[in-house]
C-alpha cells in the first residue's frame, strides 16, 4: 500500500513517499505495449500482437513477457465487458479495445474498454494528413535504434499529431531524410495504385511492422487486388489512387487530404473495412 504525505504551499505540493509513485517504466518509457481490437469472438489477431509484444521486448533487451498469462488475462478482461457488440448503442457495432503494457520491471497491465469516439470518427469520415520529415535516414539507423519496437516512448508520436492539429490536419506521415514515406505516429501507411495494395516494407524502412497492414495484404486477393511491399516517395504517394492509415483499433482511416490537397473518397474503403471485419457502414460512402 502506498503511504503518502503531502506538503502544500501556494506554489507547489511535494509528495513524500516510502516508494517512488512512478515506476521506471512509466517515467522513462522503458517498456512495450500492444493495443488490440476486441470483438465478440475475442481480441482480434491476438497471436500476432503477442508475437510483436515479445519481439519488441527482445529489441529492448527485456525479459520475455509471460504470454500465456497475458493471453488468459485478456480473455478474462474481454469477458468482463457488459456486451461488446452493443457498447456504441448500435446493433452489431464492434467498439471495444484492449491494451497490454509490459515494463522492464516485469509489470504487466491489461485494460479493456470502449474505443474513443474520435477514433471511430476517423474511420468513418477519413483524415487530413501532412507529410513531415522525421530527421532519420533508413540507411544510417544507429545500432541501438528501437524504431522497430512498439515501446512506451510515445511522447514524440503524440507531439507529431498535436503539430498536425495546429496546422489544421489530423495526422502525419513521417518522411525519411531520403524523402521516403515511412509511417504515421500510430499507424501504418497503405495505398492503392494500379490494382495493387501497397505498404512500406518494415525491415527496409526500419519501422514498426504493422499487424493490420500485414493482415490486409494477406487477404486482399479475395477482392481481386494484388499486394506488395514497396518504398514510396512523398511525390509518388500523392499520385496514389487511394491512401489509408491502418491500425488495429482504427482499422482503416482514408486520407481525404494530403498536404492540403483534397482527395476524392475511394469506393474501396468500405470494401476493405468489411474485409478486415469492420462494418462497411463505418465508412462514409463516396459521392
UniProtKB/TrEMBL annotation:
GO terms for cellular component: cytosol. InterPro entries: Aminotrans_IV, Aminotransferase-like, BCAT-like_C, BCAT-like_N, Class-IV_PLP-Dep_Aminotrnsfr. Keywords: Lyase. The keyword Lyase applies. One of its GO terms (biological process) is carboxylic acid biosynthetic process. Gene3D superfamilies: 3.30.470.10, D-amino Acid Aminotransferase, subunit A, domain 2. The keyword rRNA-binding does not apply. It holds the Pfam family Aminotran_4. GO terms for molecular function: lyase activity. Belongs to the class-IV pyridoxal-phosphate-dependent aminotransferase family. This is 4-amino-4-deoxychorismate lyase. It comes from Actinoplanes lutulentus.
